[in-house]
Amino acid sequence: LGGGGKLPREGAAKRHLDDDFEQHEDGRHDDRSKMAAEMDRAPLRTYQRPYEDGKIEMKKIDWHDYYQIEQDRKRTGPGEHGTAVILSPAEEGMKQELYKVNGFNALVSDKISLNRTLSDIRHPGCKTKKYSDKLPQVSIVIPFHNEHFSTLVRTVWSVIKNSPPQLIKEVILVDDDSSKGFLKAKLDEYVKKNLPKTKVVRAGKREGLIRARLVGARVATGDVLIFLDSHCEANVNWLPPLLEPIAINRKTVACPFIDVIDYENFAYRAQDEGARGAFDWELYYKRLPLLPDDLKNMPDPFKSPVMAGGLFAMDREYFWELGGYDPGLDVWGGEQYELSFKIWQCGGEMVDTPCSRVGHIYRKFAPFPNPGIGDFVGRNYKRVAETWMDEYKEFIYMRRPHYKNLDSGDLTEQKKLRDKLGCKPFKWFMEEIAFDQPKKYPPREPPDFATGEIRNPVSNLCIDTQFRGSNERFGLAPCIKEHQGQGGEQHFILTWHKDLRPFKRSVCFDVSAKQPGTPVILFHCHGMQGNQQWKYNYRTMQLYHMVTKNCLDSNPEMQELYMNPCDTQLATQKWKFDHVNVT
Ligand code: UD2
Ligand code: MN
User: Fold this and answer.
1) ipTM summary value
2) Reported confidence tier of residue 266, pLDDT bands at 50, 70, 90
3) Ligand with an atom nearest the CA of residue 227
4) What's the mean per-residue pLDDT of the chain?
5) Rounded to the nearest whole angstrom, what is the distance from the C-alpha of residue 230 to the centroid of ligand 1?
6) Is the CB of residue 186 less than 8 Å from the CB of residue 262?
7) Helix 208-219 × helix 335-345 angle, to 10°
8) In terms of DSSP H, where are the helices of 297-358?
9) Ligand 2 centre distance from Cα of residue 196 (Å)
10) What is the best residue among 147, 209, 211 to mutate for testing ligand 1's pocket, by most ligand atoms within 8 Å of CB?
11) Burial class (CB in 10 A: 0-12, 13-18, 19+), 43
12) Atom 37 of ligand 1: nearest residue by CA position
């Protein structure tokens, strides 16, 4: 296994900050069992944040390790410099077994050196960039479940090789109950013999990636936490650009650019040159085009609404201030939204750092079976939506109605935390962070269900509020379209909140009793549904009131409106909007 390759320790002697390396080396062979048992967190702050009081002016230095870069330049071998590895026909025939259990071509991985070099595909501006000489030390947390040995170990080597040693406090591998028997013994042995500052912590039982990250974060002692997936490769000088924004503002969370390591041949390439992270209403992660200013300032860090999830750096104290991750999130999925929403809504910010690049193997398929616990992704999404997304959660339920019936567990603690931190509404996040700026990035408010006049096609009369106010009743009138000037207010919206209101006004159709004949009045829109929740059935043309289960009915002779039990045969219960949004 593993192309092996002698490790570039000889480079250490030439490193310009070599002394510190020695200084921080100790403790790398900690008593591991003690480590795992000792779940109490280390003191949260171990250093003086350099720019906190605004007194120190930042001194910038060139953090590149030119000795290492020169060594790397000379290397040759399969996959070096991020090139593709092509298997021989005989090997092609043997690759399936490893492919099946990993979701990527692990046989190719095994042919590549564990400390291979990548091509430097950074923006040219990154090559001359300098960063603060005072950067925090990091703990790198890497959860893994049945990761392939060579991809896991290559992740660690890439980090160690491409980072200034004095900035790495430790690398923590969290074994999330891997069942590959050989992985444990072989890994422990390899780590002990070869990997400086690295320790393996075992979760004890399958926790899923989110709680596994928490296990690692709890034993971490560095000033900054960096999370990585177990099949990554950090590129040249990736660390300083990631840390400087945090040194300047401890509430900034920084994400590297995530490059692609091809799952078939392990070639390394960019997925793009930057994007704003976002999502759709099924909570699929989306990448939106950069804003003009971000492009102009390239390769400076730019704000991004949502992280991809796996790879980011965050002040350790701040991570715990925000409660870490919701420990109720199971196995996989949703934690990237939880943390992103929490960061933005509760006073932090998130940036992508173009000069920090890390490759990641996006698998061809997920090789792990569901551990027999049903729709955990749905339950995770529901936890996040219920805790953080306020009324916008309805969009998710609209797309995925079955989430409504999922039991997502107790959310008391999560809601308490949101209260305690005094976090802003999701609407603020949507409008100011996620989809703001040149107003051209949808979705802002989701589309309304129906708009325009509401006409009874039999009597040919329209609903007309005559611009009345709160607590007032209203009825029917000749439609303005045919009787210019004769009507009053006949333009309505059935909004995405599911209330029914005159266009551009904040009074809503409100029904407060079940009895047949109950009138409809206007009332201040509260956005909480209840008495103001309507549903339009465009097939039967009925306007259904959810709470009372009655339908909007009319008496055309008297030009009156009131509620009655629904009856599809009744012409007086039929209503037609100008525009209906059928989704
Ligand atoms: C993406 C993220 C991943 C995470 C996930 C949503 C990137 C590059 N990847 O999916 O970090 O945010 O979306 O939750 O942004 N693992 C465990 N226990 C498990 C399952 C996974 O420890 O039960 C480990 C796994 O070995 C890996 C990490 O968790 O190191 C992420 O899992 P993945 O690689 O399957 O997720 P990915 O990249 O598809
Ligand atoms: Mn991954």
Assistant:
1) 0.99
2) very high
3) 1
4) 89
5) 8
6) no
7) 60
8) 316-321, 335-345
9) 24
10) 209
11) exposed
12) 362
